[in-house]
Every structure is written in structure tokens, then in C-alpha cells.
């Protein structure tokens, strides 16, 4: 009986608590101080429905979604990295998404740049991407910037955004974007991808004024000097697997979402470099990075990169990175056109001892895609080492006319220069095919594979 009475009292207390709770909630809802006109909740019902799966996660929640809605994110580069990054940021509900790119869509982009499509070839990439993104989420404010980022425009553009993603593919743009982020106080999510590998890091986080010891490192802190210009390989030259660049772009979006949804005073994660290798086990490795360099030209107390040096054009990023593409190092007498190559080969029998030798210095994979009859594959990559280890190669070229060809006419010039240096005067003549196989396709054989 005592237990029954105790249970009855508990039920009465619970009922009273429930009634009090209901009255409190109804009172709050009816109080104008707690309720904006026609807006009972912080998000619309459409927002709850669209973003519900991430709203119920404690890492996002209501406050995180509101931060996403208020965030202004700039993506520099609407290619292989920028397409997936922008798609997932738009899907997550970022309020404003800006895209910077001066390129147009090409058919060779489509295997990896998923925001573009066949019917939008020749359209500005930013316009193509916005069309794709608007169909994905029409509630985001999209801002296309139809031009390449330059030192004179970077700071003005960056001032309109809170976070920046570097989705470009060249050292010149990477240094420029990082410098502009330091000067404008923006966190930067930077990534790269080539062949089957990728890298990702969050820079200038937390963003602090140059010289502040608690600020995150910038790109110059990690890479004080650019790589040698001749070692820089683009996707067009080295190749890229679509899912690899897609993974890196998605990871950029993830890091941006983490930055946006974090509470204002949350501690920044220690600086690190994430390495991805698709054909390795494990595929991911994390490398710790040092904090800001005391001698950094961009973010140290003695920095030389300033707003005036950036906007005035005195910061020459092309000269700093030593860009040498396209290569033009041989005199006209050491070059031959694709059309002249045809007549030269036609006038000689391949079985003659003095017939010209055609050296194809593309890598073996490209050589197997397409090659000229009787040509010899001698890849430029590692050529110097191979010539030193196998002296018979130079012996076989002695007294012969040698014609060197590659994809675009750059590596072939470097190969000619190397062969002349290592075996001066031994060959009857040595020339490169100007413009490589791209010129061959345009001038001689329109059916030659365009890859």
C-alpha cells in the first residue's frame, strides 16, 4: 500500500512538472521578446528538412547551421578541386559561395571536374559551376568572378569573404593566395592533387597579424622556396585520376565546414599536412608542421610582403617561382616543324643506316597510347641518369640525324640541350619538333589522339 501511495504522488508531481513546462513554453512562444514576427524558429521548415541529417549531429547542431548560413566562402579555382569542394559546401548550406576562375570548360576537364558537363563546354567555369550548384541548392548566394586572381585584385575580392579555399594547381597562385589571406586575415584551406597523390593543409589558422606568435603558419612557412620550375608538372603533363582530386576537394570542404561550425573561441587544431596516396596502404598519413617561421617573408614580424607591395605589382610571383613554360631555349636552326618532319621521314628509308632517328621523350604510358612508326622511346624523366648509366645510347646516335619529339615541344627542347651537352658534336644534327604532337595533330594528322 505504501508503495502504491508513493507511486501516486510521483505521478502527480510528474503531471504538475509537465503542466508547468507546457505553460512555460507556451508563455515564451506568446512573448514578443522571445518570438520574431512570423518566425517561431531560427531556421525555416525548408531548412530543417534540407539540413536535418547534419542538424541532429552535435558537431553541427542549430548554432553550427546558423554559422554555415552566415558564412561567406571563396573558392579560387573551379576545376578538379573546386568542383567537389563547392558542391559539398553548397549542399551544407553555406550562405555565400564565391568562385574565382578565368578559364572556360574543356572536354578534357569532364572526367574529373564534376560540376561541368558536355553541353557547357566553352562556358566560363564559374558560370558552369554556378548552374550546377544552383540546381543542387538554390538557397545559396553564388558570386562568380570571371577572371584569374591577380595581385592587384586579390585583396579586394578577399575582403568580401570569411574563409578561402585554394583549389588552384600552380605555385604562383598558391603563394599569392596565401599572402593575400595573411594580409586580409582569412583562414586558408589549401590542397593539391597529381596523378594518384594529394596533399591538404589548413593555413593561417587562427588568422593573426604578421608577427603574432599564436597565428597559424602560412604557405611560405611550409614552403619558403618554390620548387624548381622544371620540376613542376601539371595535370595535363603528369595526369590525374578523377577520384583522387575529388577526394582532396571533398576534404577541403570538410575542413572548411569544421572551421565554420566551430565555436568562436575554439582552439585551432595544431598545424599538419595530410598526405593521400591512392595506391598505398595506408592511404592517409599525417605530418606535423611547425608554427610560424620567425623569418617568414609573409607572416613574421619582419615580413616583406605588404598590402602596397602586393597591389602595386612589385611582388612578381612568376619571377619568384621561375616559371619557364612554354620553353623556348633553342635557336630556329635547331628546330623543325611538324610538316617538315613528314617530308624528312618520307625522303628516307627507315632501313638505311643513315636514316633519321626519331626520339620520343614522352613517358612510356603516353608512348603506348600513340607513337610514330620506328620511333624510339627515351623518356625525358630520368634521361640524364640513363645516359650516364648506358653509354651505348649515345654511341648509337653518333653520326646520325636525330629528331626529338614530345607532347607539347617543351621536354623535347630540354632533351636536345641535354644530348648536345653530354655528347657535343657527335651527332650529325639534332633538332626538336616544334610544338610536339599537338602541332603534329594541327598540321599533319587531325586524327592523332588529343589527350
TrEMBL record:
<keyword id="KW-0547">Nucleotide-binding</keyword>
<keyword id="KW-0833">Ubl conjugation pathway</keyword>
<keyword id="KW-0067">ATP-binding</keyword>
<dbReference type="GO" id="GO:0046872">
    <property type="term" value="F:metal ion binding"/>
</dbReference>
<dbReference type="InterPro" id="IPR028885">
    <property type="entry name" value="MOCS3/Uba4"/>
</dbReference>
<keyword id="KW-0548">Nucleotidyltransferase</keyword>
<dbReference type="GO" id="GO:0032447">
    <property type="term" value="P:protein urmylation"/>
</dbReference>
<keyword id="KW-0511">Multifunctional enzyme</keyword>
<protein>
    <submittedName>
        <fullName>Molybdopterin-synthase sulfurtransferase</fullName>
    </submittedName>
</protein>
<keyword id="KW-0808">Transferase</keyword>
<dbReference type="GO" id="GO:0070566">
    <property type="term" value="F:adenylyltransferase activity"/>
</dbReference>
<dbReference type="InterPro" id="IPR001763">
    <property type="entry name" value="Rhodanese-like_dom"/>
</dbReference>
<dbReference type="InterPro" id="IPR045886">
    <property type="entry name" value="ThiF/MoeB/HesA"/>
</dbReference>
<keyword id="KW-0479">Metal-binding</keyword>
<keyword id="KW-0963">Cytoplasm</keyword>
<comment type="function">
    <text>Plays a central role in 2-thiolation of mcm(5)S(2)U at tRNA wobble positions of cytosolic tRNA(Lys), tRNA(Glu) and tRNA(Gln). Also essential during biosynthesis of the molybdenum cofactor. Acts by mediating the C-terminal thiocarboxylation of sulfur carriers urm1 and mocs2a. Its N-terminus first activates urm1 and mocs2a as acyl-adenylates (-COAMP), then the persulfide sulfur on the catalytic cysteine is transferred to urm1 and mocs2a to form thiocarboxylation (-COSH) of their C-terminus.</text>
</comment>
<dbReference type="InterPro" id="IPR036873">
    <property type="entry name" value="Rhodanese-like_dom_sf"/>
</dbReference>
<dbReference type="GO" id="GO:0042292">
    <property type="term" value="F:URM1 activating enzyme activity"/>
</dbReference>
<keyword id="KW-0819">tRNA processing</keyword>
<dbReference type="InterPro" id="IPR000594">
    <property type="entry name" value="ThiF_NAD_FAD-bd"/>
</dbReference>
<dbReference type="GO" id="GO:0005829">
    <property type="term" value="C:cytosol"/>
</dbReference>
<dbReference type="InterPro" id="IPR035985">
    <property type="entry name" value="Ubiquitin-activating_enz"/>
</dbReference>
<dbReference type="GO" id="GO:0006777">
    <property type="term" value="P:Mo-molybdopterin cofactor biosynthetic process"/>
</dbReference>
<keyword id="KW-0501">Molybdenum cofactor biosynthesis</keyword>
<dbReference type="GO" id="GO:0005524">
    <property type="term" value="F:ATP binding"/>
</dbReference>
<dbReference type="GO" id="GO:0004792">
    <property type="term" value="F:thiosulfate-cyanide sulfurtransferase activity"/>
</dbReference>
<dbReference type="Pfam" id="PF00581">
    <property type="entry name" value="Rhodanese"/>
</dbReference>
<feature type="domain" description="Rhodanese">
    <location>
        <begin position="352"/>
        <end position="449"/>
    </location>
</feature>
<dbReference type="GO" id="GO:0002143">
    <property type="term" value="P:tRNA wobble position uridine thiolation"/>
</dbReference>
<keyword id="KW-0862">Zinc</keyword>
<dbReference type="Pfam" id="PF00899">
    <property type="entry name" value="ThiF"/>
</dbReference>
